Amino acid sequence: MLGEGRWNFYEKILTAKYKELKQLYFQRQFDGWQLSKEESGVRLYSKIDQETGLKTVRGEGIINAPAKKIMEAALNISENTLWDDTMEQGKLVETKNNYHVIYNILKRIGFLTKRDVLTVFSSYHEKDGTIYAVGTSVENIKQQENPMYVRANVNIAGWVLKPLEYDPNSTHVTYILSCDPKGMIPKSLINWFAEQQGMNVRKLGNFVEKKLWNENQDIPPNSDESFFFK
């Protein structure tokens, strides 16, 4: 997709995905979410899509950092491989205003063909300080499909960053992901991978807190105080 029209298209689909992310965020167990596990300060929930049998996952936890700093790290493609161990490499394809087209290559899992993914992301700031960052798969002539990889489809990937009322320098973080890696992969393996991605809250938290500690020398990284669920 070329021309200025693509940015109008990206704006339209991301506005819809922003609304979808908010709906998913405010849903609870009566809407199908089930608590899968609690690990390393993260509560991991999942719900099954009845048509595809694939899981949508959400991880929730507290990161001791301001929401803005967390968002900057989450959407900084040059740093993603430093905290997301499923990413092999990534690049920013193009950007305009608050819309960013991002290309990622995922690490190989077992003997499976590597996956790549092309998404467009944007962020939305609420009056109460909450930040929503949401992305979805798109096509772009500047990064066409590569026969070396299987192009995965991200239905929605989003961060919800809500500053704590009693401590605006700490943030309740929710990560929600619904994706289909495509190809001939057992659903059990796909759902296992999705749950691993739900733990990105912990991975990102450790990375951001360590980075802030290096800047401020306040809280030692990986201490008991450093990352926990409240």
What does this structure look like?
This protein is α+β, with helices and mostly antiparallel strands and 230 residues long. The protein has a single domain, classed as 2-Layer Sandwich (Alpha-D-Glucose-1,6-Bisphosphate, Chain A, domain 4). It is built from five helices and eleven strands. It has helices at residues 5-26, 67-74, 80-83, 187-198, 200-216; strands at 34-39, 42-48, 55-63, 87-96, 99-106, 115-125, 131-137, 150-151, 153-164, 167-180, 227-228. The protein is globular and about 50 Å long. The N and C termini lie far apart (45 Å). 32% of the residues are buried. Residues 222-230 have low confidence and may be disordered.
User: Helical stretch count?
Assistant: 5
- What's the CATH topology name? Alpha-D-Glucose-1,6-Bisphosphate, Chain A, domain 4
Class computed from helices, strands and strand pairing? alpha+beta
The count of DSSP E runs of length 2 or more, i.e. the number of strands, is 11
Tally of individual domains: 1
**Proportion of β residues?**
35-45%
Q: In sequence order, what are the helices and strands, one letter per element?
A: HEEEHHEEEEEEEHHE
Low-confidence stretches: 222-230
- CATH class (first level) name: Alpha Beta
What would you report as the Rg, rounded to the nearest angstrom?
Answer: 17 Å
CATH homologous superfamily - what is it?
START domain
